[in-house]
């Protein structure tokens, strides 16, 4: 059966995250509903990252199989006509039969957006975390440095899951200043549940001088969620990109 | 009585424009309601640009008078606590008594945002005009050049108004390419009703090769709204900045 790879964008505000649930609207349920309408087949999808409730995506990757063999542009156009306005397909590719969006992902990139100025954002409300007090970016960058590398990240796992491997290779953790915004960009081979939000929450506490940069190393070593900072809110988080073997890193 | 100058930001989606109306929610009514709550005085406001229904603002300027004399930061903070989430005050300044936000404005800057790629925007939906077919930016820029200068702009006036002066000095009209977006930035000493949307709609028809660049000069000369293109939709338009004597041009 042909296997397809979708790259999708969504506004997570109205959804209880990616994963299908009995009573709440989810991205996966909406996408599978559109796929079923388009193909008349019951289609199961797999996403690279199972984003939490309220989290957005600019480049989530989804794989599925279907008896239907449509041209890429027809999949994209057909799905976009059926999906709600807050979910959109950016591209569809026919891939090899064994392709699996989650198992084959080499790394994922998340971006977290903060507006760091006194007044609340208006046009960007619900899309960024508003922090009115000035953040010490130098301290945040110093703390970020000690997170880069291969670590046991249990201190940043939001709640216990069936996942038994707490080791993540954080390949990059940048703190960028974009006008009045601060963007934290993090790339890793894998992420524990709510890990980005726990890391961002902790770095923000460093930026507000509630913690020292050098504390982050100790937090990692403790392997205890209570050691780290509060989770940053979901609505500032974006799944930006997923890399697969043979895929080329695009410049941001 | 002290006179104040507010710089405000708003998401126009939920409002029937700036100007107070009997039955519909407007920016002016919401702002005057907040001012009344804060001061216990009935306060009348004047805006630099009376934006249409659905139009946004990043830097609308508003003047008002009040018996209350508060510090700038207290006005800003007090109003932000009372205003709805889609309207925000960025700054408050005490100005000279004769200051009038509309009469004293030397020029205003509007920006129009277009997303020019095949797939509909998701996170930016309702904030940009989606044009799936590729736009010929060179042709649009050529057409824009002939609009810069002092002209009778009746061909771009949306509907008859009580305004009897159709002469506008368009000081700048840039067509910028920002990743997948096209931003049209227009600065003029004054604007006729729906003028920016008529100009953008006409330039887009040039970009789609439905009209030639050189037609724009003829359209201006005809002084007839029927000669120009359709209005661009309101939701892509932003009032960005207003300049007053003595105020310094900030770089974009």
Give structural notes:
The structure is a homodimer of 252-residue chains. Chain A folds into 2 domains: 3-95, Pseudouridine synthase I, catalytic domain, N-terminal subdomain (Alpha-Beta Plaits, 2-Layer Sandwich), CATH 3.30.70; 107-243, Pseudouridine synthase I, catalytic domain, C-terminal subdomain (Alpha-Beta Plaits). Chain A has 5 helices and 10 strands. Chain A is α+β, with helices and mostly antiparallel strands and 252 residues long. Chain A has helices spanning 27-39, 72-82, 137-145, 195-207, 215-222, and strands at 3-10, 46-47, 56-65, 87-95, 107-115, 129-130, 149-152, 167-178, 181-188, 237-243. In chain A, strand 8 (167-178) and strand 9 form a beta hairpin. Chain A is 21% helix and 28% strand. At the A-B interface, strand 4 of A face strand 4 of B.
């Amino acid at each position: 059966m042909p296997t397809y790879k979708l790259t999708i964008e969504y506004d997570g505000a109205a959804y209880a995250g990616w994963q299908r649930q009995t009573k709440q609207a989810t991205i996966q349920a909406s996408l599978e509903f559109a796929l079923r309408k388009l193909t008349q087949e019951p289609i199961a999808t797999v996403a690279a990252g199972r984003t939490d409730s309220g989290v957005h995506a600019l480049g989530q990757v989804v794989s599925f199989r279907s008896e239907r063999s449509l041209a890429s542009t027809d999949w994209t156009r057909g799905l976009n006509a059926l999906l709600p306005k807050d979910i959109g397909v950016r591209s569809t590719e026919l891939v090899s039969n064994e392709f699996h969006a989650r198992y084959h992902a080499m790394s994922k990139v998340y971006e977290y957006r903060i507006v760091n100025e006194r007044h609340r954002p208006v046009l960007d409300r619900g899309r960024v975390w508003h922090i009115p007090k000035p953040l010490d970016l130098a301290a945040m960058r110093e703390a970020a440095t000690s997170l880069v590398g291969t670590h046991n990240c249990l201190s940043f796992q939001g709640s216990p899951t069936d996942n038994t491997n707490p080791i993540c290779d954080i390949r990059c953790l940048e703190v960028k200043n974009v006008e009045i915004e601060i963007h934290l960009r993090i790339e890793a081979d894998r992420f524990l549940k709510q890990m980005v939000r726990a890391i961002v929450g902790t770095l923000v506490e460093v930026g507000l001088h509630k913690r020292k940069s050098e504390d982050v190393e100790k937090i990692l070593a403790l392997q205890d969620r209570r050691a780290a900072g509060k989770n940053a809110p979901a609505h500032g988080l974006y799944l930006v990109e997923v890399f697969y073997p043979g895929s080329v890193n695009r410049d941001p």
